[in-house]
Each structure stands twice: as C-alpha cells, then as structure tokens.
C-alpha cells in the first residue's frame, strides 16, 4: 500500500478528509482547564513575588518551576483546542470570572502559608483536570493523554511543595 492509498486501494478525495473537531462539550471542558491553569500560573507568580521568611529562596525558586509548568500546560491545552477548531479564551476578565481556584490573598505571605496556599491551588487544578478527564477521554483520547501528563506533573509539584511544611 502506498502512502497516498486508503485501505482497500482507493484514493481519498480532499473533501472526504474533514479532520476531527471538538464538540461544544469538549471545548467547554478544555476551556475550564485552560482557565484554571492560567489562574494557577498567575497565583504562583503572586506567591513568588510576596513570599517571605525562612527558606524563602528555595520556595521562591520552586514557585517559578510551578509557574512555568502551569504556563506551558495552559499553552499546550489552548493550542490543542485550536487544533480541534475551538477558541481558547485566556483574557484576564474571563479567567477572573470563570476560574474554580480559590482567590489568593494580597500582600506578603510567610513561607509556611504560601506552601499551604499553593498546595491547595495545585490540588484544585488537578481536580479540574480529573473532573473533565473521563469526558475528554470518551471524545478524544489523544487530548486525554495530554491531560494525564499534566495531572502527573502537577501532582508531583503538590507533593514537593507540601513537603516543605512536613516533618519526619
């Protein structure tokens, strides 16, 4: 079989290959995931700028890793939405109005407080991903594979950040 042949030996016409597009339900699920990832990125930066106290530097640097992960994950899902014919909305007013993450307090926060605040937000973002994963998987297993990778990464960060407040 040649690369240009379809199974059974007949060529496809260009009009026979429409490509996969996201249903409105899939687009809504992915939009919520993008929004929460963008909010995690923004709250991570807020924490990064305002954390104070013992072990400040270590947490300050680790928060940049969390921020980078959230930003890259949001970009991955937003670009996947575009590949599926949906339009992500990452505008600040949309993010503020639709995120499921709890708000982040203003001002300086102690290392211990930031650890707890960021851990909750990491877990809440993972919960959003897990909430939508089965529905995404039923419609588009390829996109669900992306979600699985993001879940694993954010759960690892939740464990690592939360360990700062634990003792043996």
Write the layout of secondary structure elements.
Elements: H1 24-50, E1 51-52, H2 56-83, H3 92-98, E2 109-110, H4 111-139, H5 141-162
Parallel strand pairs: 1-2
Helix pairs in contact: 1-2, 1-3, 1-4, 2-5, 4-5
State the gist of this model:
With 168 residues, this protein is mainly alpha-helical. The N and C termini lie far apart (62 Å). It contains five helices and two strands; from the N terminus they run αβααβαα.
Protein architecture, described:
Helix content is 67%, strand content 2%. It is mainly α. The chain is elongated. Helix 1 (24-50) packs antiparallel against helix 2 (56-83), helix 1 runs antiparallel to helix 4 and helix 2 (56-83) runs antiparallel to helix 5 (141-162). The chain has helices spanning 24-50, 56-83, 92-98, 111-139, 141-162, and strands spanning 51-52, 109-110.
- Summarize model confidence as the mean pLDDT: 93
Low-confidence stretches: none
Number of helices: 5
Please tell me what the overall shape is: elongated
Question: What amount of the residues lies in strands?
Answer: under 5%
Helix-strand string: HEHHEHH
Please report the distance between the alpha carbons of the first and last residues. Answer: 62 Å
